[in-house]
Design goal:
Length: 176
């Protein structure tokens, strides 16, 4: 159950995300820029593999969606380390919010933003690139293991490293 304290931290984290939406927007725009360049090769590859009706978007759109989902989890570390840089981390820890409240409050808005990003990307892929999910190739549901585990890994990196740069570098390596 989400506590009131988690919701307060989440509201502040959401406001911080909305003040600088560039990285969130780029996580949707970049796959859409890359898709037209990658789709013809994927189409040829799928047709050679015995899928004559494949559009290329069938492989590229979910692949880019998952890749950029992992890349966008770097925002988790950024939100935590910004608190240190701004000198507000000690005040946050001194608040009545527990560690679990703080972690949940920091991660929840990013999770919601990630769901919206995936929804926009998969919808745009359907409209622009012929992405048609069917059968076992359907995109993972919102509770998918890759998204859940990626968030946990980012929180772990924040706990292990004392600098944002180190957490971002190792987190970026993990996305590839």
């Amino acid at each position: 159950m989400i506590s009131r304290r988690s919701l307060v931290v989440a509201r502040i984290s959401r406001q911080l995300l909305l003040t600088d939406p560039a990285s969130t927007i780029m996580m949707v725009v970049m796959p859409l820029i890359l898709a037209p360049f990658l789709a013809p090769a994927a189409k040829a590859q799928l047709q050679l593999a015995g899928y004559p009706a494949a559009s290329g978007g069938d492989q590229i759109i979910p692949g880019l969606a998952v890749l950029f989902a992992f890349l966008s989890t770097q925002l988790v570390g950024t939100l935590f380390f910004r608190e240190h840089a701004w000198g507000t981390w000690n005040r946050l820890r001194a608040s009545p919010a527990s560690t679990a409240d703080i972690v949940l409050g920091k991660v929840a808005p990013l999770y919601v933003a990630q769901l919206l990003e995936l929804g926009v990307l998969l919808s745009a892929g359907w409209l622009l690139f012929g992405y048609r999910p069917n059968g076992s190739c359907s995109p993972w549901p919102w509770w998918s293991p890759p998204l859940r585990h990626a968030r946990g890994i980012r929180v772990m990196l924040v706990a292990l490293f004392s600098s944002m740069d180190m957490a971002l570098v190792l987190g970026g390596l993990g996305a590839w």
